[in-house]
Design brief:
The chain is mainly alpha-helical. The chain has one domain: Heme oxygenase-like (Heme Oxygenase, Chain A), CATH 1.20.910. It is built from 11 helices and no strands. It has helices at 5-12, 14-21, 24-31, 36-63, 67-94, 99-104, 109-124, 127-149, 162-169, 171-188, 194-219.
């Protein structure tokens, strides 16, 4: 039996989770073989995704039922707007993608599908539904970063994606991922039940599949 909600959801969705964290796009980042066009397209779409994710974090404040829950959501929103977005803009600049390009880029269908699913889940459900929909992204990237950092040569200067791996494997993002796990448990405590776990698993499974589709969107851009 898992000791926290995230691990329980991940175990219930093992095939989908592996398809996400072990996607060919992820493996190609690790060995440096990912086509540059794929990575650049992914970076632009991920920026647009993060904007929508910030709205989801703001929705979490509205959906909160206590001041403590509002503070948790606000801390997550602040970290996204002030830290992760700035990091993303910096990474994009390093790949020759200016903020003007990011601002005027259209959303890909995979971006629309994923972001609207998260927001729709939050609007129709409660705070826990929303946190579960956001968990594969927030926590999954931490797992992917750690996994890729352990790949021989992944962090070598010869890998063009070493900086991206280092950011998500680094202490800063690992702390964000661990905090997201803890926050999920705190939000779940007064709300979760065995009867509800099936619904939460369905939300988690769909969000995880959409994460894999997001990688595939980047890979399909290899032309």
């Amino acid at each position: 039996m898992s000791s926290n909600l995230f691990d329980a959801l991940k175990e219930a969705c093992t095939p989908e989770w592996r398809a996400y964290v072990e996607h060919p796009f992820v493996k190609a980042i690790g060995d440096g073989s990912l086509p540059l066009a794929s990575f650049q397209h992914y970076l632009v779409q991920d920026y647009l995704f993060l904007i929508a994710f910030a709205r989801a974090k703001a929705l979490a404040i509205y959906k909160s039922e206590t001041l403590d829950e509002m503070r948790i959501a606000n801390a997550g929103l602040d970290a996204l707007l002030e830290t992760e977005m700035a990091l993303h803009v910096r990474l994009c600049a390093g790949w020759g993608i200016g903020q003007d390009v990011l601002e005027r880029a259209p959303e890909a269908l995979a971006t629309v599908a994923y972001t609207r699913y998260v927001l729709d889940t939050g609007f129709k459900g409660d705070l826990l539904d929303l946190y579960v929909a956001m968990a594969p992204c927030l926590i999954g990237y931490g797992e992917i970063g750690r996994s890729l950092a352990a790949v021989p040569g992944a962090l070598d200067p010869g890998n063009p994606y070493a900086a991206w791996i280092a950011e998500y494997a680094g202490d800063g993002y690992q702390a964000i991922a661990e905090q997201a796990k803890a926050d999920l448990d705190r939000i779940a405590l007064p709300r979760v039940s065995m009867a509800r776990l099936e619904r939460l698993t369905g939300i988690f499974r769909t969000a995880t599949r959409l994460e894999a589709d997001f990688w595939q969107m980047g890979l399909d851009r290899a032309d």
